[in-house]
């Protein structure tokens, strides 16, 4: 490629493009467009179809301004430019997670005990350590527990927690968010006795003698007076904590699937404190939507750091906790078709209000029954009040069939299925069975139908690490090596697009992010190895070398 000096290069425009170098703002004077940062010697997988690979790129004022060869990009640098030598490492656009719950996860990390430890003994040790620093009588709260993942081969129970402490009430919450395990002290201080009966929509699990096992589901958890109050300062710090953790996995943009008033405040506070290092698309909850809507705010309001996303509702149960609403029953439970949490009329009503108000709509719909009901509402709106390019979303959209796929493709709707579940939650898929798993988390089918399927972790229920997501979507292999739904595999090319450009498309932001393209936001990740060079079964082990958001390094190994 021809070498240009900086002044020539900046005046070139068409010639530079012809030479393979793409630039953003080629019109400014030389002095004003010296890049802040250049990256050279990279194996840059841009995810931009017009310019799929490059060696180098430059960033100024938070945006890519040039993408091309080492020689051309080096020529742009001045003494004030930071130069990163990627030394041949692979560089990809910043990863996007289009469905996650980071603010709650961050607050948990800040205040509570992470029990994602894989054994009851280790959970007990972690809780004991916390108990030693906690005055008797105060609650100890664990989070990220998973009933099917303990080395002991059984779930945690009340006695396990009594062995930790009888002086502290203890609760260990399931990462799925629907159940918890409590110790005897917790039952006692909350006034729950053997005689206490189950509330509507909740359950105290008991053994054959009627004694509590400690496991408590859904609304029965409301009987325990776990102090939930957190201060605005803590919530803002929690945002900072989760930003750092997610940045370390290569994430640069996240869609928060349901944002409360306290969350909106926390994100703004974190930003003011300089701690916001993820670009957030904040879906409004049913509860915050009316105020935003009546103030005339709609999807897209905000800027490239904090942006109002769609309004979010939930119409059925969970995939990982095995309660989603399906047209056929769960394996081994012939009468169990899962749970709907909204009626068709309710779905019609909320969709109509938001659609006519100019909002994007996102509805949690896991099972095929629920997806059909949500599509009914989206299709009705398009008939009665047509709007261009709504990109209404189907959160999770776990179980599909050819009819649903065709309708999703025809309407231009966006499914956001779990991207790490096939790998991470393998032991749970037996309850759906082989046949259903060929139609679940159906990344392969979505790609086949030309649907821009979005990347989604649903953290905390699912791991958010994008490299695990690539591995899961490409191999469909769980951690024990069992393959689930091999027909839904995608290629690595497709998986990378899902985690980058499709994530941008899901929030109408494909013009500003998702690829390393001149003019877009300068968000990128340097990987220690190329995912194309390693065994697909170890993509998740590739180290993240550096994560950069808007030209600023937010994580460095
Ligand atoms: Zn969710």
Please, could you describe this protein's structure?
With 557 residues, the protein is α/β, with parallel strands linked by helices. The chain has three domains: 6-88, Urease, subunit C, domain 1, CATH 2.30.40; 100-223, Roll (Diaminopimelate Epimerase, Chain A, domain 1), CATH 3.10.310; 285-514, Metal-dependent hydrolases (TIM Barrel, Alpha-Beta Barrel), CATH 3.20.20.140. The protein is built from 18 helices and 24 strands. Strands 9-16-17-18-19-20-21 form a seven-stranded parallel beta sheet, with helices on both faces. The longest helix has 17 residues, at 368-384. Mean pLDDT is 93; it is low at 1-20 and 25-31. Zinc ion is lined by residues 99, 101, 257, 458. Zinc ion (ZN) is lined by residues 99, 101, 257, 458.
């Amino acid at each position: 490629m021809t070498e240009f000096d900086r002044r020539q290069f900046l005046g070139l425009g068409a010639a530079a493009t012809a030479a393979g170098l793409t630039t953003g703002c080629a019109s400014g004077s030389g002095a004003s467009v010296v890049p802040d940062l250049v990256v050279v010697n990279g194996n840059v997988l841009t995810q931009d179809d017009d310019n799929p690979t490059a060696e180098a790129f430059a960033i100024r004022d938070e945006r890519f301004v040039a993408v091309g060869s080492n020689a051309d990009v080096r020529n742009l640098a001045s003494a004030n430019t930071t130069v990163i030598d990627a030394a041949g490492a692979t560089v990809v656009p910043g990863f996007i997670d289009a469905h996650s719950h980071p603010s709650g996860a961050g607050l948990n990390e800040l205040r509570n005990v992470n029990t994602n430890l894989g054994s009851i003994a280790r959970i007990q040790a972690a809780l004991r350590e916390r108990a030693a620093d906690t005055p008797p009588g105060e609650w100890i709260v664990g989070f990220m527990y998973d009933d099917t993942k303990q080395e002991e081969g059984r779930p945690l129970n009340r006695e396990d927690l009594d062995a930790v402490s009888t002086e502290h009430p203890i609760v260990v919450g399931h990462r799925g968010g629907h159940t918890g395990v409590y110790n005897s002290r917790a039952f006692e201080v909350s006034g729950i006795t053997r005689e206490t009966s189950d509330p509507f929509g909740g359950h105290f699990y008991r053994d054959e003698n009627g004694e509590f096992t400690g496991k408590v589901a859904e609304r029965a958890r409301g009987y325990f007076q776990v102090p939930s109050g957190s201060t605005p300062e803590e919530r803002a710090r929690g945002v900072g904590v989760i930003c750092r953790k997610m940045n370390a996995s290569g994430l640069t943009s996240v869609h928060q699937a349901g944002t409360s008033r306290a969350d909106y405040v926390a994100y703004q506070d974190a930003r003011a404190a300089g701690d916001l290092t993820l670009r957030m698309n904040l879906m409004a909850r049913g509860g915050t939507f009316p105020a935003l809507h009546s103030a005339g705010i709609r999807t897209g309001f905000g800027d490239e750091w904090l942006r109002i996303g769609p309004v979010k509702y939930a119409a059925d149960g969970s995939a990982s906790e095995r309660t989603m609403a399906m047209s056929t029953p769960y394996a081994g439970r012939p009468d169990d078709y899962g749970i709907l949490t909204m009626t068709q009329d309710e779905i019609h009503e909320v969709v109509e209000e938001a659609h006519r108000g100019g909002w994007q709509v996102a509805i949690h719909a896991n099972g095929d029954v629920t997806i059909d009901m949500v599509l009914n509402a989206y299709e009705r709106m398009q008939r009665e009040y047509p709007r261009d390019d709504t990109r209404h979303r189907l959160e999770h959209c776990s179980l599909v069939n050819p009819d649903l796929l065709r309708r999703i493709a025809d309407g231009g709707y966006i499914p956001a299925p779990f991207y790490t579940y096939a790998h991470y939650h393998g032991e749970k898929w037996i309850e759906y069975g082989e046949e259903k798993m060929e139609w679940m988390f159906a990344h392969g089918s979505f790609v086949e139908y030309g649907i821009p399927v979005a990347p989604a972790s649903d953290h905390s229920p699912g791991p958010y690490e994008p490299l695990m997501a690539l591995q899961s979507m490409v191999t469909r292999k769980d951690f024990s090596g069992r393959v689930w739904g091999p027909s839904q595999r995608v290629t690595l090319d497709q998986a990378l697009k899902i985690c980058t450009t499709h994530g941008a498309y899901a929030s109408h932001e494909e013009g500003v992010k998702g690829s390393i393209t001149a003019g877009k936001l300068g968000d990128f990740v340097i990987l220690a190895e190329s995912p194309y060079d390693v065994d697909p079964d170890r993509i998740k082990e590739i180290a993240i070398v550096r994560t950069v958001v808007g030209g600023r390094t937010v994580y460095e190994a």
